[in-house]
Amino acid sequence: MSGILSSSIAKKVAMALSALFLIIFLLIHLSVNLVSIFSEDAFNTASHFMGINPLIQFGMQPILIFGVVFHFVMGFVLELKNKKAVGVSSYAKNNGAANSSWMSRNMAISGFAILAFIVLHFIDFWIPEINHKYIAVLPEDPTRYFHELQHKFVNPLRVGAYVIAFVLLALHLLHGFQSAFQSMGMNNKYTKYVKRCGKAYAIVIPLGFIFIALFHYITQLS
Amino acid sequence: MNLTLKIWRQKGPQDKGAMVEYKVNDISEHMSFLEMMDVLNEQLVNSGDEPVAFDHDCREGICGMCSLYINGEAHGPDRGITTCQLHMRMFNDGDTIYIEPWRAAAFPVIKDLVVDRMAFERIQQAGGFVSVNTSGNTQDANALPISKHAADEAMDAAACIGCGACVASCKNSSAMLFVGAKVSQYALLPQGKVEAADRVMNMVHQMDLEGFGNCTNTGACEIECPKGIKLTNIARMNREFLKASIKG
Amino acid sequence: MAILDSKVPDGPIKDKWTNYKNKIDLVNPANKRNIDIIVVGTGLAGGSAAATLAEQGYNVKAYCYQDSPRRAHSIAAQGGINASKNYMGDGDSDYRLFYDTVKGGDYRSREANVYRLAEVSGNIIDQCVAQGVPFARDYGGLLDNRSFGGVLVSRTFYAKGQTGQQLLLGAYSAMNRQIARGKIEMFNRHEMLDVVKVDGKARGIITRNLITGEIERHSAHAVVIATGGYGNVYFLSTNAMGSNATAAWKIHKKGAYFANPCFTQIHPTCIPRSGDYQSKLTLMSESLRNDGRIWVPAKIEDAKAIQEGKLRPTAIAEEDRDYYLERRYPAFGNLVPRDVASRAAKERCDAGYGVNATGEAVYLDFADAFVRYGKEQAKIHGIHNPSKEEIVKLGQGIIEEKYGNLFQMYEKIIAENPYETPMMIYPATHYTMGGVWVDYNLMTTVPGLYCLGEANFSDHGANRLGASALMQGLADGYFVLPYTIGDYLSDDIRTGKISTDSKEFDEVEKEVNDRIDFFMNNKGTKSVDHFHKRLGKVMWDKVGMARNEPHLKEAMAEIKAIREEFWKDVKVPGDANEMNLELEKAGRVADFLELGELFAKDALDRNESCGGHYREESVVKEGEQKGEALRNDTDFGYVSAWEYKGEPADAVLHKEELEFKDIELKQRSYK
Q: What part of B 76-105 touches A (C-beta under 8 Å)?
């Protein structure tokens, strides 16, 4: 069994599965964030529910962290292995653009940029949150979430970084979405729909996040 | 037309190698690329130099021997052909053309533009066959009908010529198109289904041992493949592999 | 004459092979483990033989000069493989396949061998299907057949236009299975440079490792040569660049007789030469002749204008076109056999009516087929009063379905769209029916030395039918040799390993090394290709499609002169102890320079026209058949087997008289 798991295809499939998991997570994350545009109260309620629900806190949260870490580590391992497979000599002239998209050739670059963003994201939201709840154990205020959110979108530099990160996420997804299906062995008459769906997803989801960031930034300008 | 060639020269497997520049003149646009190389080599021999070593044999696009990376693409800028079918009308007078060997750790250079593709052989030996004796005492060829669709699809997969352009074009030096094509051919036919699980496991295992990279679905291989082998073959291999793994 | 014993078994032709198999000595499985067999060449014949022998339990060592057995030139065969399965129910049988093959070969093949070939042909298909060869099928899931090469039944199995490739990959996969089991030891990028005889028996070979240049000794109890034909003696041919006659020629020099070298097939539908730089010619499947009409301009001034590029073929009116095959051979028209079609094209081009810049091409025109199919399609699709353009478009669709890949290949090479202007074609050397003489067991005149496939002479006589080469290669390798070799090896079960440490191996290795040293140290001025091209020109001009006594005598003298110059003035750069492609070529061309002369000598001896060999002196003098080939069964009903005596010109002729008990001899007529 360990022999199977160490094989190249198993690694591909694991990469694809973790990607699909993260794709679903992104959708949920965006849905909750979108609430912040319509209603401060509803956003606070939803955030508070997530913040105190043990199933989410001790069930989903570790799985999510594992998912992110796994996808990254596996991606890193594969990238190293692939570099080794290419060998020491490289082409004096290589015309990659002739046969493949920039996105597909630079998943590692977009991936690393996204990772850097996630680190920033953790520093912004997750670490203060953990500190609040479990380390400093500050008094719980079910209405604090919205203000904390707004506070993060005051600095234009941060908003800029946020936007760039999501553009890169879009590029990552443009290749990654349908690639995950191919890796899991799905390439048939439905593939063209998967590809369309992937394109739509890769554009709509990051746009949604960018919209929310800009919305909170602009609404606080005055 | 007159051309400048930048060609990889490497005396032997241990030599470091380097790009060397040559000039060829009065090249006809009707020449094939390898005939242009013949002109260069004749020129080199006559001037007492060693000709450029490159693999070639049938010169009609089917043996899979020729293997040049031309101006940054496997088998050059044209599509659906091998290097031997590439014609000089694809180039212009005064062009500089880069000519390099396939690059991959699993394809070490033997000399100049000649690489060692024994890794492909070992992958095929690991399972690229149906275990049937060649005694001739098998059942009648028509005893088992096979749907035209499956037969045609198997044929499309079987059209692979084993040239290695997929590996050469892949930014990860992955051999999955090559292996996927063979796995697919047999997985589609009832004769091959019997040992399909063992085959895919063994061939993938050998592919990994040879040090080929992992597919990241860039699709470069499909575009550069002279025989139009489809990415669906890689998906099928992945599927076959999953099936075989789950069954144990 | 005793030495040329064909060893054909007695009895009625239908029972010969079965009775023979029942009576031969076999080697028991335990003893097979102690016996080694060398197989040189890994195409259809060599690959299938190596796989089957290994499967039977022998230790096989297989050699190919390419980097993989899968590259052998069998891979380039397009059309298909014949088998007398009679799946179409159109009256095919073993006898009919046998009859067609002997007749197609113009009665110069050995009856018993051909009958056996027909007998095992069905098994080949069973075997290949079991191996997973994806033959074309119909919608019911059964195997599809097509007609090929002007025979009266549909017996050709095919896999798109890549039948040779798929069959070779089948044999290759069978080899791989045995390589994985350790029963075949595979030597890629190794070239056999000579055979070693011990006590008169073939016991080993000397090879050069083409990567390291190392000269190696390999021993075995028997040696099998399956290295293909010698078409590259013409320099330009449809063979692969590396296809060579060295193995066959080396065994000839060591005692194997060489049979019928002048029987060479010139294939009519190849893409014409475009200039002096041309390195090889590309074949297009002759199935194209089913739908294309062949013509040249009827007026010499039109032909001149086309050659100078001043006139387009589409501008020539119907009445100014000469459909010369339809004119000369009304019964068969464009579907006359390969040799007839080739000579007719040469005749027109020699008369000045050729159509490309070189004057060496004729048109193959699909315009009528477009209209014919287009009208049919319009009916099927219920289109009333279709315009001419619509009809042509519909018809082109059908032609694309049938020959799309060939049209595309043509366009890539010539850069002209064959849907718009007629294709240009010209004959090119394609296949050599002649080869090493073998008996019924496929053994040469050297004990323990066998020869299979195109490299031997046995089954195709003076002309090979389409889709029969693949059949012969696989029949020899899968079904014939594995039986017959056992009969010989049954005497060797107590011999034990053959040592390579003997004076016989020392001597041959020294010969090989001396020759390589000569090449490396010769201070010549001309490249190997220079000599090869000159040889090719003499062969094509004087020993080509039409031959006569003065030309053949000149050819012999000229080839000898080129050979002498070659040995004085050839230049081989680089080192011997590394990959050296020029050195490889030098050895091969040196052998072609001898073979070419024997070829011409054989053509000179055979003063009759039969199959691919056309002597201008032997034609029908009057009547309807005037000018057509005339066979002479009384004086030339034999196989010429040549014994090497030092110089090719001194070779001694041995005749194997051919007997036809089961077929009546007729003059071919396609009028």
A: 77, 98, 100, 103-105
